[in-house]
Design a protein that fits this description.
By secondary structure, this protein is α/β, with parallel strands linked by helices. The protein has a single domain, classed as Glycoside hydrolase/deacetylase (TIM Barrel, Alpha-Beta Barrel). Helix content is 37%, strand content 19%. It contains nine helices and twelve strands. α2 links the parallel β5 and β6. α1 packs parallel to α3 and α6 runs parallel beside α7. Bound molecules: zinc ion.
């Protein structure tokens, strides 16, 4: 079955002093080299929505999906110009009730407050041809939510972001990659077309669209490891 790598990024930039999990940061220069390498290898970098026909097996081609979790300001400021330079699109997953705020769900454990895009910044991202995906309303562990909370977090984030952008929001990403059957059903019932997890590995045509695995691109990855993750079974074995 054809393989479609879905790359997962969090922050593009330099970690603040004292920040933990510095691997979540990919420096701007490293990101630029990765995108250049994708293009050099003949990949078209696409958003989740644009890649859906490939993931469903309706279209063939060398594509890689580019995703950003949480919606940090550095995705707009540092990643967007590089994506544009390469003619790529990407999906960023936003937390619809933390717009213009910070990562309150893990600021304490990471020892850093990271700025999230505000409404205007999300609109700029969208106007640049990039996709707005949903990542819940408040970034909870969805398996701990009651049915009512689940509905609120999942369907609620969809309608919040649709109101903001004036476009359909069809892509979801599970906070912390935390999910079970009840959660995936709620995502499907809310009208999303697909969802990504934090399960490591490369997506394959025919995979359950609500359980897509991704490739973790970490700040310490040198370019050759990036290529290995993209093109070999390296990341699948970590999953
Ligand atoms: Zn997240």
């Amino acid at each position: 079955m054809p393989i479609i790598p879905i790359l997962m990024y969090h922050n593009i930039g330099v970690p603040a002093q004292g920040a933990r999990l510095r691997n979540l940061y990919v420096r701007k220069g490293a990101f630029a080299r990765q995108m250049f390498m994708l293009r050099l290898l003949g990949y078209q970098g696409l958003s989740m929505s644009a890649a859906m026909p490939y993931l469903r097996g309706e279209k063939m081609g060398r594509v890689a999906v580019i995703t950003f979790d949480d919606g940090y300001v550095d995705t707009l400021e540092n990643a967007l110009p590089i994506l544009q330079k390469n003619g790529f699109s990407a999906t960023c997953y936003f937390i619809s009730q933390r717009i213009g705020q910070y990562n309150d769900w893990d600021a304490a454990s990471l020892n850093v407050r990271k700025s999230l895009m505000n409404q205007d910044q999300i609109r700029s991202w969208h106007k640049a041809g990039m996709e707005v995906g949903a990542h819940s309303r408040t970034h909870p562990r969805l398996t701990n939510c009651t049915d009512t909370e689940l509905q609120n977090e999942i369907a609620g984030s969809k309608s919040d972001l649709e109101k903001l952008t004036g476009s359909a929001v069809t892509q979801f990403c599970y906070p912390y990659g935390d999910l079970d059957e009840r959660v995936t059903s709620a995502v499907k019932d809310a009208g999303f077309e697909a969802a990504t997890t934090t399960q490591r590995g490369r997506a394959r045509v025919g995979d359950n669209p609500f359980l897509f695995r991704r490739i973790l691109v970490s700040g310490s990855n040198l370019l050759h490891l990036f290529i290995l993750k993209l093109m070999s079974g390296y990341e699948d074995k970590r999953g």
